[in-house]
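**Entry details**
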Amino acid sequence: MKTFLDQLISHRGGALFVLAAAAFLEASGDSLFQAGLYRTSGASRVLFFAGGAGVLALYGLVVNLPRWDFGKLLGVYVVLFFLMAQIIAKVRFDQSPTPPILVGGSLIVIGGLVITFWKK
């Protein structure tokens, strides 16, 4: 039986949406752990850790529940994760990308394009 996510990823735009959502969840969960480690203490720290664990578990479901060949989509996912991580770094932590991050990120994007579009 096909799940809603299986139906969604059967279309290119739907697959891109699910991958973007997964990248957002993974980067958000990681940012909650970072905030818990370095920006909170006491009960707040526990809440950030619990929130991070919950968001990362949801990420695991979103990325693994659909029946897709994830290896084929890995290039797109890595690019989306990098972009989401940079957005979250700026919004949550006011960290702007440095020149090395911009250059390395450009290589990530180029690599994702090669993996996605290079046909044998």
Observations:
- The chain has five helices and no strands.
